[in-house]
Batch of 2 targets.
Target 1
Amino acid sequence: MKTKRITKIALLASGLFCTPLMAETDQAEKHFARCVACHLAEGQGIPGAFPPLKNRLAKMSNSELGRQYVVQVLYGGLMGMITVEGQNYSGVMPAQTGDLSAKEVSELLNYAVNKVDKNGKPENWKPFSEKEVERLSKTKGNPVSNGNLRKQLLENQRDLK
Ligand code: HEC
C-alpha cells in the first residue's frame, strides 16, 4: 500500500516538474516547423534552393557576430546571392518571427541547434536566452543588409564557407 502511494506521489511530482519543460519543447518543435518547410526536417536543405543549416547553425551561432547574424536573419530576413559549401543560392528568406516572443524565439533557436547539429556542437556553445534575443533583435536589419552582415561574418569566421 505504502509503496503504491509513494509511487503515485513520485509520478505526480515528476509530472509537475516535467510538464513545463515538455510544453516548452513541444512549443519549440511546433515553431521549428516553419523552418522545416524550407530547410527540411534535419536542416539538410535543398541544394540550390534552401541552404543547409545542418552542421552549421551551432558553429554559426558560436560568436557574438554570428549570434547577431542568426537573430537578424530570423527577425529581418535574408536575400541575395550566398554560397554555402560551394553551392550558390540566390533565394529569399522572409522574416520568420512574426508573432513570436523573444522567449519563444530563443527556445526555437535552441531547439533548432540541437536538432540540426545533434552530431556535435562546439564545446563552448551557449544556448540563447530570452534576454539575449531581446537585446540582439533590437537590430533586425533587412534582407539586403543582413546579406552584408553575412559577408562580414564569413570574413571573421573562415570555417563557415
Ligand atoms: C520560405 C523558406 C524559408 C523558411 C520558412 C526559412 N528559411 Fe532560412 N533561408 C531560406 C533561404 C532561401 C535562405 C538563403 C537566402 C539567400 O539565398 O540569400 C535562408 C537562409 C537561412 C540562414 C542563413 C544561412 C547562411 O549560411 O548564412 C539561416 C541561419 C536560416 N535560414 C535559418 C532559418 C530558420 C531558423 C528558420 C525557421 C525559423 C528559417 N530559416 C526559415 C529560406 C527559408
Note: The chain has a mean pLDDT of 91.
Target 2
Amino acid sequence: MFSFLYFFHITGLAVWLGSLVSLSILIILINKILRFGELTNKFVQIINKMIKWVMNPSALVILLTGFMMTLQMEYTSETKPLWLKLMEQAGGLILILSIITFTIQSNRISKKMISKGTAVIHIESSKLYSSILPLMMITIILILGVTMIVSLKIM
Ligand code: HEM
C-alpha cells in the first residue's frame, strides 16, 4: 500500500511541476503573440482546463497520498526527521495555497470570458495572464525548494 501511495505521490509531483512549467512557457508565448494581434478564447479555455483538470487534481493527489503515507509511518514528533516535517508542513501549505489561488484566478478568467461572449479575447487578457505568471514562477521556486530539502534529506 505504501509503495502504491509513494508511486502516486511522485507521479502527482511530476505532473504538477510539469504542468506549471509548461503553462508558464505557454503564457510567455501567448503574451508575445498578443503583442501582434488577438487570441481566440478557445486558447484561453485550454489553459483554464489545464489548471482545473490537470494542475489542481495532481496537487490534491500529492497532498492526499502524502498524508496517507504519513499516517502509515511509525515516527513520533521527536523521531521524525526535519526534511519530513518540512515537507509535510511547508509542502502542505504550498499545495493548499496553490489549489486555492489558481482556482480563484481560473474562475476570474472564466467570468471575464463569459462577459466578453464568444468574441475574440483582446489585449486585456494578456494583462490578466501576466498576473498568473508571477504566481506560477513563485510556486515553481517553492516546489523546487521543498524538493531540494527532501533530496538533501536535511535532518
Ligand atoms: C510541495 C510538496 C511536496 C513535494 C515537492 C514532495 C516531494 C517528495 C519527494 C521527492 C519524496 C521522495 C523522498 C524520498 O523518499 O527520498 C516524497 C516522499 C514523501 N512525502 Fe512528499 N512532497 C510534498 C508534499 C508532501 C506532503 C504535504 C506530505 C504529507 C503531509 C508528504 C509526505 C511524504 C511522505 C510520507 C513521503 C515518504 C518518505 C519516505 O519514504 O521516507 N509530502 N515527497
Note: The chain has a mean pLDDT of 86.
